[in-house]
Amino acid sequence: MPLALLALAVGAFGIGTTEFVMMGLLPNVANDLHISIPAAGHLVSAYALGVVIGAPLLAAVTARMSRRTVLIGLMVLFVLGNALSGLAPGYHWLLAARFLSGLPHGAFFGVGAVVATNLVAPERKARSVSLMFLGLTIANVAGVPVATLTGQHLGWRVAFLGVSAIGVAAIASLFLLIPRVHTDIPAVGLRGELAALRSLPVWLALGTTVAGFGALFSAYSYVAPMLTDAAGYAEGSVTLLLALFGVGATIGNLVGGRLADHSLRGTLFGGLTSLAVVLSLFPLLMGAEWSAAVAVTLVGTAAFITGSPLQLMVMEKASAAPSLASSANQAAFNLANAGGAWIGGLALAAGFSVTSPAVAGAGLAVLGLAVAGVAYAVDRGAAPQAGQERLVAAHVPESAESLRG
Question: Which parts pass through the membrane (predicted)?
Fold first, then answer.
């Protein structure tokens, strides 16, 4: 695999770290800024809002720019947002800085996925995307715990300044490793990118992302009380168990990328089915400590098997202009985060057991399967075009030579 994928993975590592570290530092931020925990929780929402707004917006307005330049510019914005977070003099400044930090998130992954697929042979496109996402999953294993411990012992501001340093390393990696072959403006432009979103298959692919990852976040948002109240773990053990989730996500990401290069849709259906099964078994698996640890690992594996297939599916359906659609898929992922947590919370608010959010998540996974099934039926009903049978080989149109602008 090209070294350029390492540069994308470094950027993904920094983004994954800053996205999730705030959750572990909420008490520290709340105490330092003299705000309540719920108010500090708005800092998580501000970042997610930045992702949802920034993903399609930045991808659209940079449609005619060199993708290499776009990636570097997005990472500069990332560094700025995290540096301002670390230096924020008060709550409202920090809220604005977190929103700014979230703006480049979706566009980086969206444009990065297009770059990654054009750097490799057609039969390795899904694996190229999974290697970029590897930075995100490793962030859950190493980046978030280290940043959280740093923030708890040296102050939360130091944690965000440290994340900025990761961003600087990513900028250097992108500058040195992403090929600089063309500087011309891509032919597609804003109008072509927006036209891609008028496609029903694109929206069905995005809907699959919302439902499928909504299933994950319905359970994962409440996994801490499941582990303590149902499985009997001490609160101090939860961080280690969440690292197991990151291990499972890393395994699922790599396995999903490899399998998707052989059967994209089969991998997607298999991942969603596995996710539904694992989540439906949570009430049983949370009955003992050992099986709860297995459950946390398996749910990460099952969910992230679908990551690369879903990203490529969206890019396939918007083959003439994949950057905006690919970035929109990241916005869909964050909508899944918010929507899944809301649905899981409804199950708890209704008085069901502490594991009920996982059961609700299983229902969302089944919904994701249904949406994916409708997308498959739409594809079957469309007349096949010559040369488009091989999904990952033909539906991301730019060659490696035309990419490097």
Answer: 38-58, 70-91, 103-121, 128-148, 154-179, 200-224, 236-255, 267-286, 292-310, 331-352, 358-378
Sequence-distant (≥ 6) Cβ neighbours of residue 191 within 8 angstroms: none
- Going by C-alpha positions, the residue among 228, 230, 255, 256 that lies closest to residue 242 is 228
Alpha-carbon distance of 332 to 346, in angstroms, equals: 21
All domains in the chain, ordered by first residue: 1-180 (1.20.1250.20), 190-398 (1.20.1250.20)
Residue with tokens 């063309």: 182
Specify the pTM.
0.77
Per-residue pLDDT of 184-234, as tens digits, reads: 445 555 666 666 667 788 889 889 999 999 999 888 878 888 888 899 888
Q: Which residues contact 249 (CB under 8 A, 6 or more apart)?
A: 137, 140, 300, 301, 303, 304
390 phi-psi bin (left φ>0, alpha ψ -120 to 50, beta other) = beta
d(CA 143, CA 385): 44
Q: Which amino acid is located at 171 in the chain?
A: I
Among 144, 41, 160, CA closest to 101: 160
Rounded Cα–Cα distance for residues 374 and 99 (Å):
35
Nearest CA among 341, 373, 202, 343 for reference residue 273: 373
